[in-house]
TrEMBL record:
It comes from Microbacterium marinilacus. Keywords: Cell membrane, Cell shape, Membrane, Peptidoglycan synthesis, Transmembrane, Transmembrane helix. It is found in: Cell membrane. It comes from the Bacteria. This is Murein biosynthesis integral membrane protein MurJ. It is a multi-pass membrane protein. The chain crosses the membrane at residues 20-40, 52-75, 87-110, 130-148, 160-183, 195-219, 240-260, 280-302, 327-350, 356-379, 391-413, 419-442, 454-478, 498-522. NCBIfam families: murJ_mviN (TIGR01695). The lineage of its organism: Bacteria, Bacillati, Actinomycetota, Actinomycetes, Micrococcales. Pfam families: MurJ.
Length: 540
């Protein structure tokens, strides 16, 4: 447990710094392209294409296939050196091929995710031009995931969490220089020519390449010497092919969901929060998820994989229960605090109170699903620990069907101004349905999971978070709501964003204090555990 604590502390520290610098990166990026506009949406859509692939690679194919295999191979006499050389060579070849195919399909990918009836021809052309510059990120994201998950599986946790800071620094400097040289707020399509597109897109991809190069520099800590090895026979590809096949199917399902959602919110592009607001809200949403879930959950997953590989099912069940309770106490208040401070948080990345309120509604839509997503992290990776990617595929299809169905219904119910926030809320509802099914399926596989115990714990945490969030909302309303200093109605530029950040800190701090006080008043047993964990993380 001490080693898990040290690993969690290192990952948490790196993730916090990475996410903070990532927020600064987004602020500079939005200052360059704007938060609402056809050009900003075209860039955001193009820049997100490689991310869709990376999210599935890191949470599906890489995590599902690579980590359990490395844990198993590490027990061998050579530490898995021979098999890793073959696997990483194969992965590099696959990434080169996939990246090339993606670039060749760039015009069709843009039209897949953008409704051509809602996007203008010039906007589609601009998105395609950006895509050619952004899609090489697929290779660097994939290599980053391959090397990073290998380091994690070898219990070298720090570099994977810290390397993205390099990307953020490169991007901050690059986007800042772009603003100085060419000006900012280029949210209209006519503002862009081939030179500007190449510079801006090149800066974005350069940052991803830089973080990958830095991560590779830490490879020596694994103690393994890797060389190119194209002799893939003996790697067990028949087994891996079946596992990877289901993960690839999940990739296609995820892409279909994202395509439908982006096409739906295309109807808001130009005048309302659309693609850029969606991705900015998702970035803020992922801050607590990354800091809490990834930093604590990633070392748990490595330990859980070891217990699963050894056939110690009782210890796996204990890992599931302990990790959900620990994550739940922290994630619940993170969701409540950010919901209360959603508008000031969105103000950090927007240019006025109206945009902040609209983008804040999108953030709230995502935050409803934060707790289910945290539980899903544990449940899904338990299946992966047993080498089972088939079952996750089926409950992913279930979630996808719900997400797509609800997204298609949204335009029939709400107007363009509320499209993006409504689709985000539907995404959260589908995540809740997914985790219920996934937990039931895991119980069928492993037997009693103590579900009643950790569900009741999550309910108690939520009951404590409701008054905490309510007090923070009351403070926001008493301060003036949409006219308060937190949204900086009469302040432009960096000063307005700083006021939004300050407002977010004030409201979030109030919510946390009330939450902890409520749990302490009712003597919640998990509070002492979580407090000790946080204290150890901060100390380390």
């Amino acid at each position: 447990m001490a080693s898990l604590g040290r690993a969690s502390a290192m990952i948490a520290a790196g993730t916090i710094v990475s996410r903070v610098t990532g927020l600064v990166r987004t602020i500079v990026l939005v200052a360059a392209i704007g938060a609402v506009g056809r050009a900003s949406d075209a860039f955001s859509l193009a820049n997100q294409l490689p991310n869709y692939v990376f999210q599935v690679l890191s949470a599906g194919l890489i995590t599902a296939v690579l980590v359990p295999q490395i844990v198993k191979w590490s027990a061998r006499e050579d530490g898995g050196r021979g098999h890793l050389s073959k696997l990483l060579t194969l992965g590099t070849v696959v990434l080169v091929i996939v990246t090339g195919i993606a670039m060749a399909l760039a015009p069709w990918l843009i039209r897949l995710f953008a409704d051509s009836d809602k996007y203008t021809p010039d906007q589609l052309a601009l998105g395609t031009a950006f895509a050619y510059w952004c899609l090489p990120q697929v290779f660097f994201y994939g290599m980053f995931a391959l090397v990073g998950e290998t380091l994690n599986a070898r219990r070298v946790f720090g570099p994977y969490a810290w390397a993205p800071i390099v990307n953020n620094i490169v991007s901050i400097v690059g986007f800042g220089a772009f603003i100085v040289l060419f000006g900012g707020e280029r949210s209209d399509v006519p503002d862009w020519d081939p030179l500007l597109i190449g510079v801006f897109g090149g800066i974005t991809t350069l940052g991803i390449a830089a973080q990958t190069v830095v991560l590779v520099a830490f490879w020596r800590r694994t103690g393994l010497s890797i060389r190119p090895d194209f002799r893939w026979r003996g790697l067990g590809l028949s087994t891996l092919r079946g596992t990877a096949g289901w993960s690839f199917a999940m990739l296609l399902v995820g892409l279909v969901v994202s395509a439908v959602q982006q096409r739906v919110i295309s109807g808001a592009s130009g005048d309302h929060v659309s693609a850029t607001g969606w991705f900015v809200a998702w970035l803020v949403f992922m801050l607590p998820y990354s800091v809490i879930v990834m930093s604590i959950g990633t070392p748990y997953f490595t330990q859980l994989s070891e217990h699963a590989a050894a056939g110690r099912d009782d210890e796996v069940r204990a890992d599931v229960d302990r990790s959900i309770r620990t994550l739940g106490l922290l994630v619940v208040i993170a969701a409540a605090a950010l919901i209360a401070a959603s508008a000031p948080a969105a103000r950090i990345f927007t240019n006025g109170p109206d945009q902040a309120v609209a983008a804040g509604a999108v953030l709230v839509g995502f935050l409803v699903g934060l707790v289910p997503l945290a539980v899903q992290f544990v449940v899904q990776r338990t299946f992966y620990a047993y080498g089972d990617t088939r079952t996750p595929f089926f409950f992913t299809v279930f979630q996808a069907a719900i997400a797509i169905g609800l997204a298609l219904l949204v335009p029939l119910v709400v107007g363009p101004a509320d499209l993006t926030s409504a689709v985000a809320f539907c995404q959260s509802l589908s995540s809740l349905a997914q985790v219920i099914l996934a937990t039931w399926l895991l119980r069928r596989r492993l037997g009693p999971l103590g579900v009643g115990g950790w569900v009741w714990a999550l309910v108690r945490f939520t009951l404590a978070a409701i008054p905490a969030g309510a007090v923070a909302v009351a403070v926001y309303l008493l301060a003036g709501g949409a006219e308060s200093w937190m949204l900086a109605a009469d302040v432009d530029g960096i000063s307005g964003r700083l006021l939004g950040a300050l407002g977010t800190a004030v409201l979030g701090g109030i919510a946390v204090v009330v939450y902890v006080a409520t749990l302490a008043a009712f003597r919640a047993p998990e509070l002492r555990t979580a407090t000790g964990l946080v204290r150890r993380l901060v100390g380390r």
